[in-house]
Amino acid sequence: MVTEQVKHTSNAARGVGKVTVMDGNKAAAYGALLSRVQVLAAYPITPQTPLVEYLSQFVADGALKADFVEVESEHSSLSVLHGASLAGARTFTATSGQGLALMYEPYNRTPTIRLPIVMGIATRDGISPQCVWGGHQDAINVRDAGWIQLFVEDNQEILDTVIMAYKIAEHPDVLLPVNVCYDGFYLSHMADRVEIPPQEIVDEFLPPYRPTHQILDPDNPMSIDPLTPNELFMEYRYKHLQALQRAKQVIADVDQEFASLFGRGYGGLIEKYRMDDAEIAIVGIGSPVGTARVAVDRARDEGKKIGLVKVRALRPFPREELVEALRNVRSVGVMDKNVCFGWGTGVLFMELRSAMLGVPKPPATVGFIDGLGGSDITMEHYARAIAIVDDSANGLAHQEITWLGLEEE
Amino acid sequence: MSIKFKVDYITPIGKDLYVVNTGDWRYQRPVTNRDKCRKCGACWLVCPTNSRHALATHYETNLDFCKGCGLCATECPARAIRMAEETRE
Q1: Which of A108, A166, A245, A381 would you call most buried, defined as having the most Cβ atoms within 10 angstroms of its Cβ?
Q2: 3-state helix/strand/coil string of A206-233
């Protein structure tokens, strides 16, 4: 059934691991374990809570030689990691929704002081209306705080991306923190086939972290983040933005290296699925991409020349890659599991439109909002979305933004 | 666009770098009446920029970093310090 899918092709014998079944939180915990993190600090919050339990168990069992700091809030969890990372440790935390909101102040400081911290976000919808369920709004709301944000599709990709995230974050061209964003409940609590890569091959892929850009060391004293005068402030901002742009190449390179060792690649910044002769396309992000693959396969069976582009990196935004991937299609439908309050659309829709500005003969773009507050993005919803994209490609009247699941039958 | 960097660091590090010149902010300066000063050291204790220092006769101000906040004048039990407005020469 799957022709172009690059995932789960285990032909690199060395990196083949043990196959088991686990939920997304456990996959994230295994990613941290295999990355040999040294300091952990986390506060439990739905739907990330089991991750904190798994990590505590790993440390209690002696499987993970790390200091686990049990903090009283998310503001403290990330602040503890600031100190640990400045002292040269590899660090990990994770949060969701309100926890991320409480973390806002140290969250913004993490990338500006260039700490290669990796943090999972078990994505949860907005803080209100009161809701514990899935949605991308928490991570989306902080997309421009200067972190790298990678969104994943399944539990294997969570585990693999946590390992890759350290390699990206600690790369001397980057030195920025990375969010691994995985859908709350849809991945965090769903059991899935996961291959645990062998520790010795992960060690080969990911050497220990040795900071050279800054270190808190009594023998070589320095203060980090003192009051910074105006011109110097601008210089640091500029360097930060340059590093985020350089991360595009590093994300792609790290993915290739990972694929060569472990037999699984994810395409880097984006992944193309059945795009070779596609005339229309769906663009998606996160776990809804899994459903989209099946929807695209079914539409293909019905004779539609349709493909799928999965966005893995929301930050940095893969502008050139998306323009290239969608160069030959007539219309694109963007599936957003979030809203952009300012524009009345989804965020991915608006950013894809911006990316297309100035491109000769760009594809038409239509937007879909679905899956908010834990609601399902069903096969029927995708079928409806594909029909609207088809209308748009054929010049028929259609809505610019459709809230799937809110439409009257 | 060509960019000229001032520092080699990529992170804000306080080391061999700028020290914020708090003296730049001053619009008034402490003037000490050496006859009234009893050398109790209250001004030295409260000065936020550590700009007061003891002489043989009285306490005086290092104007490099004095930001003119006036804490010394307010706290001086002998009322030996007054704040004088800075004026262009």
Answers
A1: A166
A2: CCCCCCCCCCCCCCCCCEECCCCCHHHH
